[in-house]
Inverse folding.
């Protein structure tokens, strides 16, 4: 997936959050925390991954 070997991909949110592009990370993490706080069932965002 996205150039990462299957073994290196974790299935938890923290692994993914660390790999969000630096210019997008603060915005995405803030939006994700808001979704969790509001206990919403769905979340959609567009952002870049670091390669």
């Amino acid at each position: 997936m996205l150039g990462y070997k299957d073994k290196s991909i974790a299935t938890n949110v923290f692994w993914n959050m660390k790999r969000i592009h630096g210019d997008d990370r603060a915005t995405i993490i803030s939006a994700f925390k808001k979704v969790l706080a509001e206990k919403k069932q769905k979340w959609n965002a567009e952002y870049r991954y670091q390669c």
Observations:
- The mean pLDDT is 82.
- The chain has two helices and no strands.
- The CA atoms of residues 2 and 34 lie 27 Å apart.
